[in-house]
Amino acid sequence: MIRSLLLMLATLCGLNNLISIPNDTPASLPSQVNTPPILEFVDYQRLDGVGDTRDMTISPDASMLVWPQDTDFCIYQIPTETTDCVETGDMPLRGMTGFRWSLDSRYIAFHEDVFVRMVESDLWVFDVEARQLVNLTDDDIDGQFITSEGITANVDYSPVWGPDDTLYFFRTVYDQNLVPVPLSLERIALGNGLEHAGTPELVTDLTSWAQGEKFPVYRSRSDVLNSTASLSPDGQLMALIVRPSELDLGQSIWILDIASGDLRQIATLPELLQTGVPTWEEGEEIGLSGLGWSGDGQTLTVGTYNGSYAGSVVPVYAVNVNTGESIPLLDFSGLPNRASLYQLTPSDGFAGAYDFMRIGLVTPDGSYVVYFNFGGDVPGVSALPLLPPATNTPIRLFSLPAGEYGSDPMPMIQPSVGDDGEYVRVLMNGYMLTFAKR
Q1: How many helical (H) and strand (E) elements, i.e. helices and strands, does the chain have?
Q2: Sign (positive/negative) of CA torsion 421, 330, 361, 204?
Q3: For the segment 50-97, what is each residue's pLDDT rounded down to a tens digit?
Q4: CA 116, CA 285: separation in Å to the nearest integer?
Q5: CA distances from 280 to 169, 302, 335, 336, 349 (A)
Q6: Quick check: 193 and 184 in contact, CB under 8 A?
Q7: Residue 414: beta bridge partners?
Q8: The pLDDT of residue 390 is above 70
Q9: Quick one: 143 exposed, middle or buried, by C-beta within 10 A (0-12, 13-18, 19+)?
């Protein structure tokens, strides 16, 4: 355990060039990015003049903004600053959620909002190139299903894209007479186009593992990073946040091997809360809110949220996927009292309430967590490096001009990020922020 803790600390603090530690990490783990670029702020843009920001997302290649509008998908080309809205039929898109881009920026997957509206959800995919919308899992059931007697509904949700346009998703077979409720991870291969999609393929049956929970893995509107299910950079492992409810201390983090179906627990919420939280914070309303992989596939960033009142901490953790060892990336344990949350300023490096990660994400190459700063009169954007030479002191990327933020709020349900190789563009809180990679 000492060796693994040293490895974790060395990786996150940039000491791996100074400390020689034997490497017994399995060779099968991914290696995507090993050295982070330097992010340099270029500009920011309000997006309320472009379109409806609520479900607006940016493509992974940072070339397009897309948002649903009634029964249309509107596509804004960033290089030309032009918008084209595509009619998709009579399907209202406003009640959809979980909008997720494929890695090649061709498809957007989404589903009905089962967890807010309690309606039966199918998995839909919009082909941005072909301007085509398809329901991939239509079971001829629509509307309310929880209280419907005699209905067996395949409830499909939480899409996750893998390599080669492979779409993973979770399926709960809901029937009031089924005990235990069947739960599975499914996938559909879209590499040859929507017309050759075929039927879902079972990846692994999760029914016995779920122990009676109908929806142990689900996306919430309060989620950050890459949501509650995230694939490793090589697509071999899927990290999962398992939470019976959003305020349940039984929450935990698991790793699923896609090829074998093996599952292993690497951390629990109570274990994480042993560090990063001051003694005066009870932690009873802290929950897990999102995951993101580092570019070398060795570390998971784990976000939290706090359902308590404003003067409560929101820690962020880094968890070694091999050992389960964790350290806080944003460590609030040294704060003597609640008042001290608001006595620090951004120039202090770590700045109490200013560094609560209420909105944040991991860059596509897994090199940084980028998050929006609130608190005080200087909202802005900061980053935490995830690769050596790393530090748990936030890097201040940009501060909004005085009076810019909050005067005319722009709702945006989920953050998103794109990378064209030269620039990283981040969508958060209704803004598009552009950073050059140096």
Answers
A1: 4, 28
A2: positive
A3: 999 999 999 999 999 999 999 999 999 999 999 999 999 888 898 799
A4: 20
A5: 40, 22, 9, 8, 22
A6: no
A7: none
A8: no
A9: exposed
